[in-house]
Design a protein that fits this description.
The complex is a heterodimer of chains A (about 300) and B (about 270). By secondary structure, chain A is of the alpha/beta class. Chain A is built from ten helices and 14 strands. The chains are: A alpha/beta (about 300), B mainly alpha (about 270).
Chain lengths: ~300, ~270
């Protein structure tokens, strides 16, 4: 697959603080790439360097295989941190300005306003917008040049659940159009729901990168409950259980390789027990994320 | 180039503060320069009440070719208003962080600076055109007998006037980019002449004045002031400099280039 973004040994120091440390990363065409990390892990600084507003201390990166310049930036739609617009200009005028800078066709403006459902408020001044509308206008401005790649930094920050769902729908819609998206977030659930690939940063260092689908591969976790007093003891006898934990009144059995929930079910049935609850849980990105971060803690 | 100017104008033309300040600037500039003769008449009538007679025809403020330098010198006093507008324009970009989004959207830092410089050029040219038309208009009204041979003497002051405005706006732009906060930048802008005067006082003590006094003209704000010398002393029978000094032009151009270059250096180096 075609490489859209390639980062080599990118580093940024702010005085003594190393915000981004020797970062190597590749993003391929069509990926929805999630950048995860706690607050202050260097996500925004990395994106700032990619978008030319932060000067790298060392290292390099290339977009579409070309060395980065302001011309390559015109092909990218990006919103870093908060939505930034001229407060005294209307949404429409702000987008016209974005289009002028990007050299985009202003004829795209009605279409992108429609995508983010702001058409009705387009002539109101930006400063009168609610936070959700500001975020949506930011996405509209990123889309106005019909970019090949979209960069969104915490696009759902500070939104209510409905606003979050709206933005998520917009992102999925854009991804379905075949655009490459880089999404920085500390919301794991968000990344798991919309991303195809992800990377984890911690204090500026890359801890992990890979496809989201790989998360939860390997061990299987089965939740089980039954009306039996010694279920915990009984489960120990099951050959497939690697470990057993009780949480919220349910037993969580970590399965050994090659064992699945149906094996556990048969085991219980043979013992004359009928499970009242039996569910396979994929390991959530949150778990994996916390594991990655704590592993890092042990090594570092 | 034109595209960059359009971008900056797009930011300003829906901004009410821009219209208010520019409106005030061009109105006061226009009224002041056009009504000098009326003021003079008023002074004469007041003087008559106290028994002092002033013959205003002996003060050919608005006669060709005196009018060029007279009006241009007066107009130069108003450039601070325009400079405040420039400061607001650039510090807004920092305050709203829109400079960051402009760069993200695909402007280079140099293009961003260019768009601001081009607006400065435009504002300077508009000032020149305004004073040129007022001078022509009032000149034809008040000059009793136009001597065409001398008509254009001193009109080179328009070049100096353009440079005076543009150099000062470049200074204001640089200050805005270095300081980034509107209030502080405006105070510094207002105090600049005074600060420079104090520095000069301390360097050029009377003991050394004779040897190094000529260095004064190389100071940035003095170099801008030197472009158009005060003309009115000629009506008190004193000799004045009624031409544009080439050294003054050269020094002012030098500073203008430096102001914009410093602004560029600061923009290029900083994280936005």
């Amino acid at each position: 697959m075609e490489t859209v973004l390639s980062i080599q040994k990118l580093t940024k120091n702010f005085g003594k603080l190393c915000a981004v440390n020797n970062l190597d990363l590749e993003v391929k065409k069509g990926q929805v790439f999630g950048m995860l990390g706690p607050n202050g892990s260097g996500k925004t600084t990395t994106l700032g360097m990619l978008m030319g507003v932060v000067n790298p201390t060392s290292g390099s990166f290339s977009w579409f295989g070309e060395p980065a310049s302001h011309l390559t930036r015109k092909k990218i739609g990006a919103v870093l941190e908060h939505p930034i617009f001229y407060p005294y200009l209307s949404g429409q005028k702000n987008l016209e300005l974005n289009a002028m800078i990007k050299g985009a066709d202003p004829g795209n403006i009605p279409k992108v306003l429609e995508t983010v459902e702001l058409t009705a408020r387009k002539d109101d001044k930006f400063r009168t917008y609610s936070l959700g509308m500001k975020q949506r206008l930011a996405i509209a401005s990123a889309l106005v040049s019909d970019p090949i790649i979209l960069i969104l930094d915490e696009p759902t920050n500070g939104l209510d659940p409905m606003g979050i769902a709206e933005i998520r729908e917009i992102i999925k819609k854009i991804a379905a159009d075949g655009k490459t998206i880089i999404l920085a977030s500390h919301l794991l659930d968000e990344v798991q729901k919309v991303c195809t690939h992800f990377a984890v940063l911690k204090r500026g260092t890359l801890m992990h990168t890979g496809p989201v689908d790989d998360v939860g591969k390997g061990e299987e976790l089965v939740e089980v409950q039954a009306y039996h007093d010694d279920l915990g003891v009984l489960l120990q006898e099951f050959m497939g259980s690697a470990s057993i934990k009780k949480e919220n009144g349910l037993f969580q059995v970590m399965m050994k390789d090659g064992y699945h929930s149906k094996d556990l079910n048969r085991f219980l049935f043979d013992k004359g027990i009928v499970a009242s609850h039996l569910a396979t849980r994929k390991k959530s990105l949150e778990k994996q994320f916390l594991e990655i971060l704590s592993d890092a803690g042990h090594h570092g | 180039m034109l595209h960059l100017l359009k971008i900056d104008l797009k930011k300003m033309t829906s901004y009410r503060t821009f219209w208010v300040i520019c409106g005030l600037y061009f109105l006061t500039l226009g009224f002041t320069t056009a009504s000098g003769m009326e003021i003079l008449k008023w002074l004469a009538s007041k003087g008559a009440e106290f028994g002092a007679s002033i013959n205003i025809n002996r003060v050919p403020l608005y006669h060709f070719p005196d009018i060029w330098q007279n009006l241009i010198w007066i107009s130069g006093l108003f450039k601070i208003v325009l400079a405040v507008m420039v400061v607001i324009s650039i510090t807004n970009e920092y305050q709203y962080r829109t400079i960051r989004q402009n760069i993200i959207d695909g402007m280079s830092r140099w293009e961003f600076l260019q768009s601001k410089i081009l607006t400065n050029v435009m504002l300077s040219l508009m000032s020149v055109l305004m004073i040129l038309s007022i001078a022509l208009f009032t000149g034809f009204i008040y000059t009793p007998k136009i001597e065409w041979d001398y008509f254009l003497v001193g009109s080179e002051f328009f070049v100096a006037y353009f440079l005076e405005i543009f150099a000062f706006l470049s200074y204001a732009l640089m200050l805005g980019i270095l300081v980034q906060r509107s209030g502080l930048t405006i105070v510094l802008l207002m105090l600049s002449h005074m600060i420079e005067a104090i520095i000069k006082l301390n360097i050029f003590r009377s003991s050394v004045e004779d040897q190094i006094g000529f260095l004064k003209q190389f100071f940035p704000l003095e170099s801008i002031t030197n472009l158009v010398p005060l003309p009115f002393a000629r009506y008190a029978f004193q000799e004045i400099q009624d031409y544009v000094a080439l050294t003054a032009v050269a020094i002012a151009i030098g500073w203008t280039v430096l102001f914009n270059y410093f602004a560029y250096l600061k923009l290029r180096k900083s994280d936005i």
